[in-house]
Amino acid sequence: MKCDPLGAHLPWSHREQYLDLILNLGLVPEIAFKAHDFDDLNPADLDCLAKQLRNSGHQPTVHAPFFDLNPGALDPLVRQASLQRLTQALAAADHLGAHLMVIHPGFDPWRYPDMEHLWVENALSFFHELLAVKSPGQCRLAIENIYEPVPDTLVSLVETLDSPRLGHCFDIGHWNMFGQASLTSWLDRISTRLFHLHLHDNHGDSDAHLPVGNGNIDFTALFAQLSVHSTQPSITLEAHSPADLVQSCRQFNAWF
Question: Are 209 and 240 spatial neighbours (Cβ–Cβ below 8 Å)?
């Protein structure tokens, strides 16, 4: 499998501390926003980062805010707030020249027992509206698996909308914790719409975001399966400290 340059998680609030490290490692930043980042966002700061990224020759990805947001929420006011925040994030992604924005779906089977169809129905309407928002750069949207035991709700959402701008972000760390479908069957379901990967490790008991190779996830199996489908998603290493990022980068390059 041929890989584009690896990406690295970069919180917007920590861009000044970690951007140089990420660029010096030859990695592409994935700018992660929190909702409150947009409450006092200075357009000049976006301009500055966009210029730095252009000068580096990299086209970034963006991670949209997700705490408390839910595109398929039963409460219309929650959906309204979610649309406002994700629209703000999409505007920032366009400003930064991002080719892709990752979105958490907000679905949890424990909170929606036997109501998956209602969540999907609301989410379909939500993403239809979000995709209608003008995006000059035609930034693509990738829905990330979180608590889903099987990919059914996410596949239903992406396949029903059938937009070239909407696909999947497969987070193998979340799958290792919550997924009940095998890696092979999950990737079989999403391979034709797989835009992006999030790579980090854990032991299946917490979302530890360990460096790749420090948990029990079989990354070789992941890339072997992707090669079967000739799928070439972009990739972000979701390390949460500089040391873990360096270790993940070295280990990934040693393997692949």
Answer: yes
Query: Which residues lie closer than 8 Å to 233 by C-beta, 6 or more apart?
Result: 170, 194, 195, 196, 197, 226
Evaluate the CA torsion angle 54, 252, 229, 71 in order and state its sign: negative
Please answer whether residues 210 and 200 qualify as being in contact, where contact means their C-beta atoms are separated by less than 8 angstroms: yes
- Beta-carbon count within 10 A of 243 CB: 9
Calpha distance 191→188 (Å, rounded):
6
Spatial contact of 8 and 28, defined as CB atoms under 8 Å apart: yes
To which residue do tokens 């990919």 refer? 151
Within 10 Å of residue 147's Cβ, how many Cβ atoms?
A: 16
pLDDT score, position 1: 43
Mean pLDDT per 10-residue interval, the chain, length 256 residues: 78 97 96 97 96 95 98 98 98 97 96 95 98 90 98 98 98 98 97 97 97 97 92 94 96 91
- Domains of the chain in sequence order: 7-255 (3.20.20.150)
